Amino acid sequence: MATIRTNFIYSVVLVLSNYLFPLLVYPYVSRVLGVANIGLCNFIDGIINYFILFSMMGINVVGIREVAKEKGDRTKLSNCFQDIIRLNLLATSIVLIILIALMFTVPRLEAHRDLMWIGVFKLLANVFLIEWFYKGMEEFRFITFRSIIIKTICLIGIFIFVNDESDYREYYFFMCAMYAINAFFNWGYLRRFISFSFFKGDISRYSKTILIMGSYSILTSMYTTFNIAFLGLVSSDTEVGYYTTAVKLYSIIMALYSAFTGVMLPRMSALVAENRIGDFNNLLAKSNKILFKFTLPLIVYTIIFSPEIIQIISGTGYEGAVCPMRLVMPLMLIIGYEQIIIVQILMPLKKDKYILINSIIGAFTGIILNLLLVPSMKSVGSAIVWGTSEIIVMISAQFFVYKLIKKGIPLRLFIRESFYVFPLFLALVGLYCLYHYNFMGMIEYIILGGCILGVHYIISCGNLLKFRYA
């Protein structure tokens, strides 16, 4: 079995590629297509992703957990996979009918039916993507190399075929095509692990759990994915462009930590099943330490350097993304801690009821704040809604964790790591003053800031490279 460190490295590369490849092309397409067309593509993609969320329900989580449990027996694994994929096909069929109906009845969607049909292609391909299966099998090496090769091909296609403002359809097509090509190879590789048969099956054994976890995912989306769709409905494509640009770097950075928690879920589930509570607690402590060392310096750096980061990523015309970005970046810490207490504690312990209650609280907060803030505050309001909702969700999840295993927020560790970051803060503020009093140009400012951040990580994080599964 691969070690956590090996799986983590592959998972980091995989998740980073999911965000890094769009980031590599983003400075190009944002200048070629303009903020309005970028906002339009992101609005349509937000709608499609929302329907993908409904079609997947809780399969991404339940699938990983159940595959990890059954992977030692080919027959049980095959039956498990086929039951789950049947549920996925059923949910996708229902969602597809609803989506097509909305395409012909909602004026905002009807006006962009060409993009919506491309999105339908993505929705259908997602059924056969089955990333949850390979993550449960801990086959991170396969999905990592496959993903990088396919993304590289699509990236080249974008640079070749997207040349002016009218090419936004081609851009969105290539972004969706990655799903279809990945799904094709994933499905072809599947026979190495399972045997297909026409057995009757029993989808009911997973339906309740998938519905609960699906409700959690859908409710959670009311203050994450839904933000983009709602912003597009009550505001403009330009405001959507500001908001999606603001969260672009956050998504890439957070992908690193999400890669870690994604690797930890099957391993923590196995530890719980084996009743190895000592190892379980040890990995939790290490997760908290990694979170604080990883996120705190980046929060300081990105808040100070937000205007320059936006300028580099998107060029001129995106100044409206600076304020939302500064509001979003602290979520690296908040959501990172949420992932620890939900993905590494509540999910392996199978406390699905608590997870569902937690998501209901977050969804209610997100809906109310969206209605109150977004129509007037636009992209800034969306950032505030997201941040406030996540804080409330974190507090709620922490309450359930303390109730279960008497583990509270590691405040002592947080204070100690914050103290270590203070010299970095002073150095970056000093650099900021030199830049704004014209003692250096933007390029020197960015490079020196990056060097200071890099030195800080080398000094403070070297011991984390020794992280192993005990």
Automatic annotation (TrEMBL):
The chain crosses the membrane at residues 7-27, 47-68, 89-109, 115-134, 143-162, 168-189, 210-234, 240-260, 290-307, 327-347, 354-377, 383-405, 417-437, 443-465. Keywords: Cell membrane, Membrane, Transmembrane, Transmembrane helix. The keyword Cytoplasm does not apply. GO terms for cellular component: plasma membrane. It is found in: Cell membrane. It is a multi-pass membrane protein. Its main location: membrane. The keyword Nuclease does not apply. It holds the Pfam family Polysacc_synt. This is Flippase. The lineage of its organism: Bacteria, Pseudomonadati, Bacteroidota, Bacteroidia, Bacteroidales.
